[in-house]
Amino acid sequence: MALASAGARLHFGFCNLSLSHERLYGALGLALAEPRVTVEATPADSTSVTVESDALSGAEGSGADAVRGDARDAVRAGVHDEIRADVGEYAATAVDLLDVPGATVAVRASLPRHAGLGSGTQLAATTLAVIARAHGRDPEVRERAPALGRGGRSGVGVAAFEAGGFVLDAGHPTARFTTDRPADGEWAVPPVAARHDVPDDWRFLLVRPDAEPGRNGESEDASMRAAVERAEPGLADRIAGIVTRRVLPAVAAGRAEAFGAAVASVGRLNGAWYADEQGGVYRPPVGDVVASLSASPAVFGAGQSSWGPAVYGVTDADRADAAREAGERALEAAGVDGSVAVVRAANEGARVRAGAGDVDDPDDVAGDPDDRDDPDGLDCDPDEGQH
Predict the structure, then answer these.
(1) Which of 275, 311, 315, 307 is closest to 290 using CA atoms?
(2) Any idea where the domains of the chain sit in the sequence?
(3) What's the pTM value of the predicted model, to 2 decimals?
């Protein structure tokens, strides 16, 4: 038997979406300690998947808390079936990639689905890693993630799974961009260009308004293609300056206020690329939540994680309670229900262990910072050669 657990991730945006520059994408984000996905696996002659009832409480996503009675039961049943189907596909692919007979897989906990917190990549990678550990195999998550349909644009999720921390990935050569989605496995996960441990006293406010799920699957692919094909190249030049002169120095120096302001700026500029796809710089009702949080002295910077509806705020341990209160006021001001939490970053990768026990006391983690790819560096603005 084996057990694996991985935390959510925040996605602050991309360095470039314009086809006018030599490198495309280049994502920024970081790993969170909570919430988490946890999967158990036992070697078997065939593959089966169960989803424990406790796993559904964290996976229902935005809008579920506003539903009651039979409708709530229907939501839970739908989420159960979605998770079971997804894990079934990931497990079948993992068994094939690892060349093992099968596995009995149980999902103990799951992340909020399609909320902007990386549920798909973390669930896929955790499933692969736990089946590999159950059979005594190396999961090779980075190499095998494309076969699971993950890591095609952003490398933040895979890098967060491997080693945690703040991550800036190197993106892809723009020449490889295609209007049609490549088949699973026909890409490589972008290498890590920069990684830093997140200071222990930093905290991250998570506000999840009850709203429609974020873009995913085919709708996300279509929206990304549309955004790329009309992206203004000048925005990439501005983001390059923010990343190299503000984001990276702030995280390296442990300056939470400067970091929060910088990643919020990256998010606003990314929102200009997505405005036609999501109804504004932020998708509704995220804009109202971000505006309210931005007015709080306890929140150093706020923005939308990925396609939302999750909203992040950067704060620190001394201001955590005040930030939580600001999150609750932001939901009230926006006129929506939702959830509020303050969490730490994770500076280690996913927890994976063999045998019975507590996954919070692992015998190893998924990756080590010293084992990461060592690329030439991220060219956020290839024309200027910035790294």
Answers:
(1) 311
(2) 2-371
(3) 0.89
